[in-house]
Every structure is written in structure tokens, then in C-alpha cells.
Design goal:
The chain folds into two domains: 118 residues, Periplasmic binding protein-like II (D-Maltodextrin-Binding Protein, domain 2); 88 residues, 3-Layer(aba) Sandwich (D-Maltodextrin-Binding Protein, domain 2), CATH 3.40.190. Helices cover 34% and strands 30% of the residues. The longest helix is centred in the last third of the chain and has 15 residues. It has a six-stranded mixed β-sheet. A five-stranded mixed β-sheet has the order 8-7-9-6-10. The protein has 209 residues and is of the alpha/beta class. Bound molecules: adenosine-5'-triphosphate and 1-O-pyrophosphono-5-O-phosphono-alpha-D-ribofuranose. The site of adenosine-5'-triphosphate has 16 residues, from helix 3. Keywords: Amino-acid biosynthesis, ATP-binding, Cytoplasm, Glycosyltransferase, Histidine biosynthesis, Nucleotide-binding, Transferase. Its main location: cytoplasm.
């Protein structure tokens, strides 16, 4: 039995679709919305529906053999898992952003405060790229509110269309990393379970199309 951790939320549909379209399962995984463990006995694959930020944890500890998760989460957590495939879904980027027209002023400010869901990415960027210490305020969502209300000077957050920034009077100051969903694998599973390779090959062919 192979166990796959799938992210609930915005990636769920497309992640499940990859397994269905690759003929790896015939079960309509996302229809069973409240079930957290979905077993496909015919293909011997079991799907776990977990929060996106928890996918690497399940894979690192070997509860799941593989998982699908955004590169943002991998960069933030640095878990010990193999990243095998860029799945080409969930495309967006991580950006430093702030109030429109204030970039120069805020980047020259001596003591900056940054609100973000990604404290490690933010710390690493300011320390290693800009050589600065910054105060980081960890938020769990609606990060764009922080500079509008004076909680922070700037934010580090996900941008896709740019609409959330625009509609809140903010703009991208710097693009930090491109993001897309990745297939990650538990290190021991990759060595011990032959079926992993078959699944990876199926998904790879699907992604190449
Ligand atoms: N606007 C977006 N467009 C495209 N991909 C996105 C966007 N926002 C996030 N993502 C990607 O999808 C992944 C899952 O995002 P999702 O919003 O479902 O969960 P989350 O950010 O962990 O928040 P929560 O579960 O708390 O709602 C992110 O880790 C990122 O890789
Ligand atoms: O550039 P856009 O297309 O507007 O997308 C970017 C927005 O999408 C994500 O938020 P999400 O909807 O996941 O809500 P959250 O802020 O509560 O995490 C992200 O954190 C941005 O706020």
C-alpha cells in the first residue's frame, strides 16, 4: 500500500486530478470531501487529506510515502524529504510587497517590520540577500491587511494575479521565488517501495503533456 498526502484547499482539485488522469486511481477523491482517509483497494493507494502546511510533516515521518505541496511550504520548512517533480500546478510567486509608491522610502527605513505567513523565508531573504535584521510578525492569512492598518511596513506573501495587492493599495517591491506544487517523497520509501517509481513515472508523463 502506498500512502499519498494530498493538500486540502486550493490545490486539492488539481492534485487529485493528476492521479485520476494518470490512471493511478479511479476514485473521485475530491467528491468525498469530509473523509480524511480515502482508500483505493484496486490500485493499492491510500490518500490522506491534510492541511497544505502539514504535508511535508506526514512525508518526513513516513506516515505518507509521498505528498503534493507548494514550493513555498518546502522553502519555509526545509523538511528532510526528496523533491522529485515540479507538477506545474498552483503557479504563483513569493514577493516582498508594500504600499503603492512607498518602495524607496520603506526599503531605506532603518528598522523595518514585515508581516508574513513565511517567517523563515523572510528572515533568510533579509539576512542573506539584503544583509539586514528585520522584525517579523507571523500572520496566518489576509496578510495584506497588515501594512494598511499599520501592523507592519511591508509583507512577504504569495502573489498570483496581483489582484489582492492591487485592490488593497499595495504593489510588488521584489519578486523572491517562483512557486508551483511539487511531488515530495519520503527518503526510506523511495529506496524500499518499488511502486513509488511507477507512480512517479505516471505523474511525470502526465506533467510532460
Ligand atoms: N493565489 C494563489 N494562486 C495560486 N497558488 C496559490 C495561491 N495561494 C497559494 N497558492 C499555492 O497553493 C498552496 C495551498 O494554498 P491554500 O490557500 O490552499 O492553503 P494555505 O495557504 O496553506 O492556507 P489555509 O489552509 O490556511 O487556507 C500554497 O502553499 C501555494 O503553494
Ligand atoms: O495575487 P492574487 O491572485 O490576488 O492571489 C494572492 C492571494 O492568494 C493567497 O491568499 P488566500 O486566498 O489563500 O487567502 P489567505 O490570505 O487567507 O491565505 C495569497 O496569500 C494572497 O493573498
Amino acid at each position: 500500500m502506498i500512502t499519498v498526502a494530498l493538500p486540502k484547499g486550493r490545490l486539492a482539485q488539481e492534485a487529485a486530478r493528476l492521479f485520476i488522469n494518470s490512471s493511478l486511481t479511479t476514485i473521485d477523491i475530491i467528491q468525498e470531501t469530509r473523509k480524511l482517509i480515502i482508500e483505493d483497494e484496486s490500485s493499492n493507494i491510500r490518500f490522506l487529506m491534510v492541511k497544505p502546511f502539514d504535508v511535508p510533516t506526514y512525508v518526513e515521518y513516513g506516515i505518507a510515502d509521498m505528498g503534493i505541496v507548494g514550493k513555498d511550504v518546502l522553502l519555509e520548512q526545509g523538511k528532510k524529504v526528496y523533491e522529485l517533480l515540479d507538477l506545474g500546478i498552483g503557479k504563483c510567486f513569493i514577493a516582498l510587497a508594500g504600499p503603492k509608491g512607498m518602495k524607496e522610502e520603506l526599503l531605506n527605513k532603518s528598522e523595518k517590520t514585515i508581516a508574513t505567513k513565511f517567517p523563515n523565508i523572510t528572515k533568510e531573504y533579509f539576512e542573506n540577500v539584503l544583509g539586514e535584521d528585520v522584525q517579523i510578525i507571523k500572520l496566518n492569512g489576509s496578510v495584506e491587511l497588515a501594512p494598511i492598518l499599520g501592523l507592519s511596513d511591508m509583507i512577504v506573501d504569495i502573489v498570483e494575479s496581483g489582484r489582492t495587492l492591487r485592490e488593497n493599495g499595495l504593489e510588488v517591491y521584489e519578486k523572491l521565488y517562483d512557486v508551483s506544487a511539487r511531488l515530495i517523497i519520503n527518503r526510506a520509501s523511495l529506496k524500499l517501495k518499488n511502486k513509488i517509481e511507477v507512480i512517479v513515472n505516471h505523474l511525470e508523463r502526465m506533467v510532460m503533456q
